[in-house]
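Lab notebook, bench 4. The sequencing result for the construct came back, and we need a structural model before the next group meeting so we can plan mutations. Quick request posted to the team channel:

Model the 3D structure of this chain.
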Amino acid sequence: MTTTSDQLDVIASAAATAAPAWRVSSAADRAGWLRALADALDAASDELVEIADRETRLGAGRLRGEVGRTTGQLRLFAAVVEESSYLELTVDDADAAAVPPRPELRRMLTGVGPVAVFSASNFPFAFSVCGGDTASALAAGNPVIVKAHSGHPELSRRTAEIAAAALEAAGAPAGSLALVEGREAGNALVRHPVIQAAGFTGSLSGGRALFDLAVSRPDPIPFYGELGSINPVVITPAAVAARGRQLAEGLAASFTLGVGQFCTKPGVVFIPRGTAFEEAVAAAVTGIAGGPLLTERITEAFPAGVEELTADPSVTVIAHGAETAEGARPVVLATDATAVAERADTLLEECFGPVTLLIRYDGDEDLHQALRAVEGCLTATLHSEPGDDVAATLALLQDRAGRVLFAGWPTGVAVTWSQHHGGPWPATTSLHTSVGATAIRRFLRPIVFQDAPQHLLPRVLRDDALATLPHRRNGALTLP
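Done. Here's the predicted structure in token form:
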């Protein structure tokens, strides 16, 4: 099913009509709409999980947990709206004695207008129709038009039906959430003059194409894309000596989680040469089976990606996972830091699926030379011991990632106030996060009112409202 240009115009017109009501909605109303949406999805969980499992084969247990994460995100953003500090309310009182004289200025953040959201294949709930991009855009006060992912079209349609009905039943205006389908419709959506920002999670090539469309419009718009990431891990010699087996088991579990289809999969792991870590990883992965991948495109790309890596003369196959009747079999590869520094374009190419590349290094200089070839990532992980001098290594990692881990593995992203899920290019096209409370910032813009009469100000900027809201006045932070 493909959305026609005429159908898109009708959908966009409805979103434009709904936008003013969303922008001026009270915190109580907007939070109520978000919670009503979450309640409706929870109530329909059995139906939605059955459809999702049929289309994605991710398993009912994993999918049921993802529904919980999705509705949890919606409720988190309801709390963000009620707490209100995201508005960044700021007042400078008039001062005729200042040089030059200062007018009264009142500043806030407000919704940008209708937002386009592109669903991801690997999270059919949490990064799809009602996922984090949609939740944060609605919380910011914007209607949303979602481009359905071709990997789960039936689920997308049913989720959108439930969501639109729940929002309207809760009092939100018609046109608050709608769905379009088809690649051409997605391209047209980004170019549509009604759309004021876009959120995307997917491939580097697909995201870059949409990014280029967004910025080449007669009126360019922000495009917030989460694209590719190899998520480097560094393990020091002392860490291998202290807990090598534990680390090997953790790596094996992490890079095979979800058949290696998490954007935070540890794709490259820097290990000291000459230890038993490789054998430990091989032992850990041998009993782990793979499984079917999400789409035909991903299924075809995975063996081609592994073949491209193994074609490099420095790369060897360390181990395979258990045989499986269908789908991708886990594989562990190995190379050395010198080769990575010389041929980063090949060896540091993301391969979506259950594969990880061990990179042997000889000392800090060898390690750091290879790390400098790593592009921007969502995460970076450092496993070290208290006596290690890792300051230089840590500096290189934090320059390349939005989240730095010192324990555990990067798969699994907590949805919290302090979370950041983003990173330098090509991990994302911006400095913002797609997970956590501050994801709302992507879909807001600042506006200042100068010498405005109280009755013409937005409700939250009037003095009586400010008395109950966190704000800054003449530079001083004031909490209610």
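The chain has two domains: 5-227+430-478, 233-405.
Will bring this to the meeting.
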